[in-house]
Amino acid sequence: MTGGVQLFSCPRCRRGEFRSLPGQDGKAFCPWCGDAVSTVGSAPSSLPFSTEPTSLVELAERMAAAAPDPGSEAGLRARLEDSERRREQAETELRREQDKKQEIKKAVQQELGRLEAELTETKARLRKKDEDHASALDDLARLKDAREKDWAAEWKGIQNSLETSERARRDLESQLREVQPALDAARKDAEGLKSTLGTAQIEKSDLHAKLAAAEARLREQKDRLQKAGAGHAKEVEELRAKTAHLESELGKRDQRIRELGMLVKTLGERLNDLADRRR
User: Against a cut of 0.90, is the pTM above it?
Assistant: First the structure.
């Protein structure tokens, strides 16, 4: 190991080269940060003391004399520059954190925009569903009114037919009551008045035929009334089936509304979580 003054450079603070005597391991201490650094070359031998120390004590004294005083201007400058470097690093870290926060804020705003768009679309679908439901209810009400009017008109016609048939039956019964005395008189005169009896029997047969025809017409009117009642019941069942279908559709819509409410609630919770993370 040479004992002359050599040039050293600190890779940590990079303040430049400095002259110093190497230690036992060939290294010297940096006057600014205090790290042990290796030599980069030999310095000119222009120092006022001998390059060959006679003892370890003399070597230590020379190293102390060569090292700058920590309280001197160079030491203060070194500490100031170190503080400035740390401040710059802190500002860099602060800018990095601010950039991260801006990115997070941008992501949150994008997510909020997407959620608001989704919520607007959901509200539009709900409004469309409500409008369709209201239109279906209006159509059902119009159909119900029309069918009720048709039923009323048909029932009125049936009642009129029944009244007509009843009047015809009463007329036949009245005619029968009017003919009955003549028939009784004809029976009394049957022995002597066969020709009158035959005429009376013919008239009686005619009256029975008219009565049978009237009863047949009455039965026909009753059958028509029963058939009309069966058709009315069938239409009622169809309307009930349509009403049940509409009620099922209403139940599905209500279920969809509840699901959308849960979705809105979930979106609100996600927004709250993002807001808490932002804080």
Answer: no
